[in-house]
Amino acid sequence: MFSSKRATKEEALKKIKNYCAYQERSHNEVKEKLYSFGLYKVQTEEILSILIEENYLNEERFAKQFAGGKFRMKQWGRRKIQYELQQKGVNKVNIKLGLKEIEEEQYLSVLQKLASKKWKELSGQQYLVRQARTTGYLLQKGYEPSLISNVISSISKG
Questions:
Q1: pLDDT tens column, 93-111
Q2: 82: buried, middle or exposed (CB in 10 Å: 19+, 13-18, 0-12)?
Q3: What is a single cellular component term in the Gene Ontology annotation (predicted)?
Q4: 116 with 51: CB under 8 angstroms?
Q5: Residues 155, 152: Cα–Cα separation, whole Å
Q6: How far apart are CA 106 and CA 104, in angstroms?
Q7: Segments making up each domain of the chain, as ranges
Q8: Phi then psi for 101, rounded to 5 degrees?
Q9: Is it true that domain 104-157 has CATH number 3.30.310?
Q10: What is the DSSP code (8-state) at residue 10?
């Protein structure tokens, strides 16, 4: 149900500071939250600039934390992370900085581990089915097709 009470600028600032302190947020997430408080565009822009000045809101820091976290916790590939950051309205420069948080050696190691695990799960299947399903799984996780084909060819030989 929609409440007709609008938050004052001061109330909204206090609430949104707690919201930002809890975890890193993108500018769009914070903007949407402020609009949900019933604030006008001018008030929202003023609060956003205060949050940026006081370092509650930093899109570069958000992108780095998001990319690193999704890779470590959910083992997402770069393409999926990039797509999700774009959906959150993060600019291209900050997306690139965020993706740099992922070390290449670790990235390839995780890809190898995921591919091997999936390949073993499909051990009863025909070769082409195994190859297609493993590729599909890794694409869905957001890994690059060229890296996937290299990993699958090395696993299938081994």
A1: 999 999 999 999 999 999 9
A2: buried
A3: cytoplasm
A4: no
A5: 5
A6: 5
A7: 9-53, 59-99, 104-157
A8: -65, -20
A9: no
A10: H
